[in-house]
Amino acid sequence: MTTETANAFFTALTLLADVAVVAAVLLAVGRFVPPVRRLGDAVVDTVGPSARRIACLVAVVATLGSLYYSEIAHYTPCRLCWYQRICMYPLAVVLLVGVFRRDRGVRAYAWPFVVVGAPLSGYHWLVERVHFFERTSSCSDAAPCSVPWFQTLGFVTLAFMALSGFLLVGVLLLVDRAAERRDLLRVDDTGHIGNP
Amino acid sequence: MSAKKPPPRPTPTRTPVRRTGRNWVFPTVIGVVVLAGVLAVVLSAVGGSDPTGPKAKLEVSPEVTVTGTALPRYTGAATDPAVGLAAPEIGSVDFQARTSTAGGVTGKPYVLAFLAHWCPHCQAELPRLVAVERAGKNAGVPVVAVTTGTDQAAPNYPPSTWIAREKFRGDVLVDDRAQNAAQAYGLAGYPYLVWVGADGKVAARTSGEIPEEDLPAMFSALAAGKPVPLPSSGASSNAG
User: Fold this and answer.
1) β-bridge mates for residue A156, sequence order
2) Is A192 among the domain residues?
3) Tell me, what's the ipTM?
4) Would A101 be classed as within a structural domain?
């Protein structure tokens, strides 16, 4: 696999993740409108049972992608990249263990990595794109944070990919939580356990 | 008449529920990931360009020769140990693969500008160097561009297109993959300018952007054999 192929592959996944995140935000904002609320509930009922597994898949793919770019494509990670790796790698492991143990409590351990990782990625993306965030007038010959290794579609960089990954994992954890709450509500209302 | 006792309601429980439905969602997501991979491979194969085509230029030199002693690595210290040392001569090629040399003793002052195509500060500095030269404010001191740190996967590739787009009229020397030319001059960051006097000795080294208004005074001082003044902001400089 060439680097260009990897770039295209991860860019496509990034865009899919962004579409999912934007859709989730729209559904959350529109919950005051009954049809949107029903649609949101249907999405939660459909995706909820698989949300943790999908979140795990997202984190694992992001981790493998990160390792590909550093170990195979030889893109030296910059300082901010390392901070994001510190968040993404354990997130993949924690979610993997949670999926195998079928443990919904894994959300509590996963959330801190998302809450720290997503703003870091967002900041890194801004550093790459907005001159205001740069505090230097030169590019280091090692691995400058302000210069992306590559850029596709004019805005998708490794930092943006990480941001999309963190946000999608966060959304999926919220969906998992919403699905759990709906399960409990059903139990309370009918006295029966599980889906109607 | 006694009222009939209603049947007891089942006691609600909050036991977490394991649901088994919608098993198609996760396999579908995996399918989408696999499909994205297949599409990426196919599109890359279809849209791949031939870098060895007739119009391809030499973006990375196959070999760079260094004659003379390499300068110490630039640190930005107040006193630059490289000032006063002989500038090594670099032998390489230009974008058309023609033999090209830079550095050494030429009998006239000159500036070596080490530039990386992906570096935004280099992208900002090159038009300033061009503008100063066009305005005749460079005191007749030529600038030789040394393209280094070239990476095909990085933005603004290839450097030959970038240099041509900025209408840079000076000589160009292409560094090799190991950046031997840059290392011979002690590069530590981009853009990196080495100011060399008529005697072939380093007058100053600067790393980082230099404001356009500071460049004429620096060129004039170099041409006159005087200490090159520090830029007012941006780059750190070491003038002798």
Assistant:
1) A152
2) no
3) 0.77
4) yes
Looking at the complex, report in whole angstroms how far the Cα of residue B99 sits from the nearest Cα belonging to chain A. Answer: 26
Q: A146 pLDDT exceeds 70? A: yes
Tell me which chain B residue has its CA closest to the CA of residue A6.
Answer: B40
Check: pTM over 0.80? Answer yes or no. Answer: no
Rg of chain B taking only CA atoms, in angstroms = 30
Q: What domains can be seen in chain B, in order of their start residue?
A: 73-239 (3.40.30.10)
Q: What does the pLDDT look like over A154-170, one tens digit per residue?
A: 888 899 999 999 999 99
Collect all residues of chain B within an 8 Å Cβ-Cβ radius of residue A2: 44
Confidence band of B51 (pLDDT split at 50, 70, 90): very low
Under the banding of pLDDT at 50, 70 and 90, the label for residue B52 is very low
Q: What is the 3-state secondary structure (H, E, C) of A65-78?
A: HHHHHHHHCCCCCC
Is A63 among the domain residues?
yes
Q: Does B10 touch chain A (CB under 8 A)?
A: yes
Interface A-B, measured as beta-carbon pairs within 8 A, has a size of 137
Question: Which residue from B39, B48, B179 is facing A12, i.e. has the nearest CB?
Answer: B39
| Nearest residue of B to residue A127, measured between CA atoms | B120
Position A195 in a domain? no
CATH code at position A33: 1.20.1550
Set of chain A residues whose Cβ sits within 8 Å of the Cβ of B14:
184, 187-188
Domain extent at residue A78: 3-186
- Chain segment B142-178, per-residue pLDDT in tens: 999 999 989 877 778 899 999 999 999 999 999 998 9
Report the relative pairing of strands B202-207 and B65-67 from DSSP bridges. Answer: unpaired
CB contact under 8 A, A45 and B22: yes
Nearest to B175 by CA among B117, B128, B126: B117
Our count of domains for chain A comes to: 1
Cα B208 from Cα B195, distance rounded (Å): 14
Whether B157 has its CB under 8 Å from any CB of chain A: the answer is no
